[in-house]
Every structure is written in structure tokens, then in C-alpha cells.
Specification:
This protein is of the alpha/beta class. It is 34% helix and 17% strand. It folds into 2 domains: 203 residues, Rossmann fold, CATH 3.40.50; 171 residues, Rossmann fold.
């Protein structure tokens, strides 16, 4: 299927073409038609499948007709990075439409946002807290909103935003189109969907288990050897960009410093950084100035970095859903990727929860001098570790940087609209 068959406005198709995309992803192909029909939609799909464009494109199409200069579409996202990323997608795809957009989130001056809102924008991408600030100040008028999107709804629940969401809903017109997109559907989000959506079209792409394109390797390791193991793997493994997850902000900062002293081009991303520092870190990781990013779960959702070849769980997450979202940073849009996890004797509960969705896909790796003998799979299997070599069918490229085997495995038929570059695009 091509985007032309979705019957989108020709100016929007021009934006799609300018961005270099020709083939919609499954979530886009299934979600865009009912959204264009005015139906409420509940979309369930893994990260990296193109959910952003699945709602941005029909929003742009609808807003091409009707009033200009008032807020007609509101997109709520859980993190600053995701809000800005959505804004960038709006500006890129809508570059020919004349529609104006604003991104609203905390950590930056509210007065610049007020000035932007005064420019009579039609689309707002916002985080809940800062949006409520604007509502209380009277600096945003949501009385004309026709379309509401809740993006990464499960993550908003995880972050405690549901009360804020319900407060925002009270300021919106009762008659509107509602779209809810999520990677998982816990009970609380399903309850919100039942309240919010009217006779919705349910769309599920795949399942909430980790993506099929990701290889899963577990490294049983002693607690006090994890940093040394990480250095060893980074030294011996062919990688592109590597995303390393820790549980705490302090550990992310400390580990990044240790890797920098070991000669790695490394940055960090966590909640203690200012918004400016977070943007600087993410932009540097995207454009290749940093090979490694050490992050907390703030980076686990909605952050599109196309060149991530490996995700490393330095600290294991607490749940299967969290594991799924973390490793969703690699193996995106049908590309392959590697998820390496350091497991200790304290991670038994999560390992058992991963057994059903992953099964035999888990590879247990032994690294001499690092392996914790008490940690094995249920069958006691282990495999000997050898530095990775290029696998058959995986292409390496030469750029003067560490090679990545994951750059060019796109599906035939054109580029899929599932990821966005890290550059900021000015609103029209």
C-alpha cells in the first residue's frame, strides 16, 4: 500500500514525500482510514511501529478544512522528549499545509510558550503538567478542540498523570473525536478508554511481547562486576549506537562518568538534567557525537534514535512491560537489534515472567571472569561467550565510526514512516 491510497490531502502527501517515506506501516494503514472517517480509535502497538504518524497525518488532513487560528487538535504525551518529537513530526509532515503547531512542556520558560500560543496555532502537543499551568493562567483556549490524542497512555498511568488527564478533559468540548494509543493496555488504561472513547475502532498490531526483530541475550553476572562486564562487551562487540539502562539517576550519572574515563564517547539522560541538557544529550546521541547513552527509563518510551543497534539492561527493569519498552529502542521498523541484559540472583521474578513471551529466544551467555554461577535458565543451560561477528545477511557500513549491522535492513517497497530524525523543524 502507498500513502496515496489513503486519500490524504495532496499537500500532506507532499510532506510525506519530502520526508522520504512511501509505504505506511501496519498501524498507519489500519488506523488512518477510521480516523479520517471521524471514528474514535484505540490503537495498541509496540514502540517503533509508527504510531505518531498514524494520528498526525489524519489530524493534518482534517484541519486543512475549517477554521484557522484556534486550537483544534490536542495531543497529550507523557514526556518532554515525546511531546517535542510529535511536534517535529507535525511540522515535517505539515510543512506544505500552512498549519501552525506548538509544543508545551515543563523545564523551559513558560513565557516563550505563551508567545507561541498567541500566534494562533491549530495544533498543540503537550505534557499534562505544563498544559494545566497554561489552563490555569488562561493562556490557552481549548474550547474549539475537535480532536484529542492520548499518546503512550500506559506510560502516563505509570507516571501518575491520570488525575491530570481527567482535569484536562473537563476543559474540552464534549463533542470531539478521541484517539488513544498505547503499547500496552493495563486495567487502568482500559477503564480510561471505556470512559473516553465512543464505539471505538480497536486496532492491535502484533502483541505486547518484545519485537520479533530483537535478539535477547542474558548475561548472569556478579553485582560487583557489572561495570567491568559492560566495558568488556563495548570493547569486543561490533555496535552502532548503544543505549544502556539503569534504575536510578545517580547510577546513570556515575556509570556515564566511568565509561567516559574508559575512553567511550558517552552521554547520559535522566530526570536530574535540565531540559536544555536533556536535548543536548539526545541530539548528540542521535547525530553520532556520542556512541553510548546511559539512561533511566525516561528514555524508554517514544524516543526515536534510528541507529540504536544494542540496548543493554545494566539494571534489569521491574516488569515485562518495562522490559518491552526498553528494548523497543532497537529493532525498530523491521530492523534487527540486540538486547543484552545483566541478570543477577535478584532478578529471578522478571526472568520467570520473560520465559513465556521469549521462550527459547533467550540466549544465556557466559563470559569468563564475570559470570555468576548461581544464575542460569531453568534448564541450567549456558553458552560460551565469544565476541560478536557479523552474522549472515546483516550489512556493515563504514563511516569512520563503530560499524552497525542494523542500518540497512528495510523492507522492500520503500521507507516506512516510523521514526523521526533528531533535528528540530520549525512550525509553519
Amino acid at each position: 500500500m502507498s500513502f496515496e491510497k489513503l486519500m490524504l490531502n495532496e499537500k500532506i502527501l507532499a510532506g510525506v514525500k519530502a520526508a522520504g517515506y512511501t509505504e505506511p506501516t501496519p498501524i498507519q494503514a489500519r488506523a488512518i482510514p477510521p480516523v479520517l472517517e471521524g471514528r474514535d480509535v484505540m490503537g495498541l502497538a509496540q514502540t517503533g511501529t509508527g504510531k505518531t504518524a498514524a494520528f498526525v497525518l489524519p489530524i493534518l488532513h482534517r484541519l486543512m478544512r475549517g477554521r484557522r487560528g484556534v486550537v483544534r487538535a490536542l495531543i497529550i504525551a507523557p514526556t518532554r522528549e515525546l511531546s517535542q518529537q510529535t511536534h517535529d513530526a507535525i511540522c515535517a509532515l505539515g510543512r506544505k499545509t500552512g498549519l501552525r503547531a506548538a509544543s508545551i512542556y515543563g523545564g523551559v520558560s513558560i513565557f516563550h510558550q505563551i508567545d507561541k500560543l498567541r500566534s494562533r496555532v491549530e495544533i498543540i502537543s503537550a505534557c499534562p503538567g505544563r498544559l494545566l499551568d497554561h489552563i490555569e493562567r488562561g493562556t490557552v483556549n481549548l474550547s474549539a478542540v475537535e480532536m484529542l490524542v492520548l499518546d503512550e497512555a500506559d506510560h502516563m498511568f505509570d507516571m501518575g498523570f491520570l488525575p491530570d488527564i481527567r482535569r484536562i478533559l473537563s476543559h474540552l468540548p464534549a463533542q470531539r473525536q478521541n484517539l488513544l494509543f498505547s503499547a500496552t493496555m493495563p486495567r487502568e488504561i482500559r477503564a480510561l478508554a471505556d470512559d473516553l472513547l465512543s464505539s471505538p475502532v480497536h486496532i492491535q498490531i502484533g502483541h505486547t511481547a518484545p519485537a520479533e526483530t530483537v535478539r535477547h541475550a542474558f548475561y548472569p553476572v556478579k553485582l560487583d562486576r557489572k561495570t567491568d562486564l559492560l566495558k568488556d562487551l563495548l570493547e569486543k562487540t561490533h555496535t552502532g549506537s548503544v543505549l544502556v539502562f539503569t534504575k536510578t539517576k545517580s547510577r546513570a550519572k556515575t556509570l556515564a562518568g566511568q565509561l567516559e574515563r574508559a575512553g567511550r564517547r558517552v552521554t547520559s539522560l535522566h530526570g536530574n538534567l535540565t531540559q536544555g541538557k536533556r536535548k543536548q544529550s539526545l541530539d548528540g546521541f542521535r547525530d553520532g557525537r556520542f556512541d553510548v547513552m546511559v539512561a533511566t527509563d525516561i528514555a524508554a518510551r517514544g524516543i526515536d534514535v534510528c541507529r540504536v543497534s544494542h540496548v543493554i539492561n545494566y539494571d534489569m527493569p521491574d516488569t515485562l512491560d518495562a522490559y518491552t519498552h526498553r528494548i523497543g529502542r532497537t529493532g525498530r521498523a523491521c530492523k534487527t537489534g540486540d538486547a543484552l541484559s545483566f541478570v543477577t540472583a535478584h532478578d529471578g521474578d522478571l526472568m520467570r515472567s520473560l520465559k513465556n513471551p521469549l521462550g527459547e529466544k533467550i540466549e544465556y551467555q557466559k563470559v569468563d571472569g564475570f559470570t555468576e554461577p548461581s544464575v542460569t535458565d531453568d534448564n541450567g543451560r549456558r553458552s560460551s561467550y565469544k565476541p560478536e561477528k557479523p552474522r549472515a545477511g546483516r550489512k556493515f557500513f563504514s563511516s569512520g565510526k563503530p560499524s552497525s549491522p542494523h542500518r540497512n535492513d528495510r523492507k522492500a517497497g520503500g521507507r516506512r514512516l516510523s521514526g523521526w530524525p533528531g533535528r528540530a523543524i520549525q512550525a509553519a
